[in-house]
Amino acid sequence: MSRGGGEEFVVVPEGWLSRGEAFVSGQGRQLAVFGGIPGERARVRIVERGGPQEKARWAGPAGAPSPDRVEPPCDRWAPCGRCPLMHLSDDGRDRARLDVLRAAFAEARAPRPERFDVHSGAATDSTHALELVAGWSDERQPRLGVRGRDARRVVPIPKCLVVTPILRSVMSVVAHHMRALDVHPWVNGKGSFRGMVARQSSVTGEVALTLVYGRSTPFARALSDAIVAQQTGISGVFAHWNEHPGPLIAASEDTGEPEVSALFGQTWREERVEGLRLRLGALDPFPEHVEQGIAAWKAVIDGLEPDEGDAVVDLGAGIGARAMLLAERSGWALGIDPRAGVLRRAKENVSTSGRAVELVHAELAEGLAAANERLEGRRPLVVAEPGPRGLDGPLADAMLALNPRRVALVCNNPKALARDVGRFAAHGYRLARLDAFDTAPWTMFGDSVAILISVDERPPERRAPRRRTVRG
């Protein structure tokens, strides 16, 4: 790729890309337009050339602006790039997400849902998690922010509208003490400080702060102490060591999960869901947009319609909350997850809940295959949240082998979801409904829940198994 030199052209974008840009096709290449809107005639400035996709930025209307266009409320919108749909009205964002989902289903030749709903939540002050990286400014001053849209520099976002006010305060305090203590950013193997991850409890409002280092440094404890002395509301501070290039948080080669060391305070944070009291580790998964994330869980439960005596399976159970909510209605649920540490804490939460939930540590397909004998003939209700790549072949085959009555697929990748819906449709499942949730405000990356119902209406031959440990 080469930089574009700032040439301007007039284009009319044809549609949306899954990352949130509008696109123009032509001459074997695709032009991705940050800030563009399909159907709007506009001036665009080329920022990157070469390869099958070139990049441009919206520079102004070349005619009547789209009725969906609004002025982005953030002055870092363009260099940050994390909120690519901030130039759209609320209705415009909903239409954009629907367009991307419809295009993905059309491309995969997957069936249209009988019911299709978009659920929007508050965008401002709504996100309870924040991840920042450390880097150098052009003046060689340490800074803390996000990797910018051009991926070449760190962009500070001290007034970020998406995260909660407390997280904005924590961000500013960490950045201040990073500079005051002369803590050098870890860049290309030099320096020490890589960044931070902060997660705020939606119940207590307290923050679990993880400071990430690329190498051992005496500053770890000093930085933690300085932050805690100034910032109220921090329940715990942790250190995570990651010397490998790539993602800020890395899994241990021994355990397969990120490991942390406690520097201050308690080692867990609290969340509550529909009467469940949960304790989570510093980096345990939980919906960042809590309201919308829990709404997606409820859509799964309502779509599966569990009744007393039904066997329920949760693939990608995580902290176990969804499995516990399902078990409350069915009387029994089996949760499978490959993350040992997360599952240990899920078991602790289940043990205090009184819910009949069995949790198995295993790769999803292997764990489901190991439970096949117990589930045979029970026609279970199955929810699967395998990640952005969707279901792999072995997992989909293991699910279909159980002849489930209903299936809920949860995914934030429209193309993967459409492919998996098509796979189940080919085996006699109709897509009853599709719900898209705004779990990542001002982006395309919301969670979608697809409910599939078998055309085989025969009831289960056996009810849910008795509760005992299933070994994967």
Number of beta strands? 24
Percentage of residues in helical conformation: 25-40%
Q: Report the average pLDDT across residues.
A: 92
Query: What assembly state would you assign to the polypeptide chains in this entry?
Result: single chain
Sum up the overall morphology in one term. globular
How many DSSP H or I helices?
11
Structure description:
By secondary structure, the chain is α/β, with parallel strands linked by helices. The protein has eleven helices and 24 strands. Strands 8-23-24-22-21-18-19-20 form an eight-stranded mixed beta sheet, with helices on both faces. Strands 1, 2, 3, 4, 5, 6 and 7 form a seven-stranded mixed beta sheet that branches. Strands 11-10-9-12-13-14-15 form a seven-stranded mixed beta sheet, covered by helices on one side. Strand 18 (312-315), helix 6 (321-330) and strand 19 (333-337) form a beta-alpha-beta unit. Helix 8 packs parallel to helix 10. It is globular and about 70 Å long. It starts with a strand and ends in an 18-residue tail after the last strand. The model is unreliable at 468-472 (pLDDT under 50).
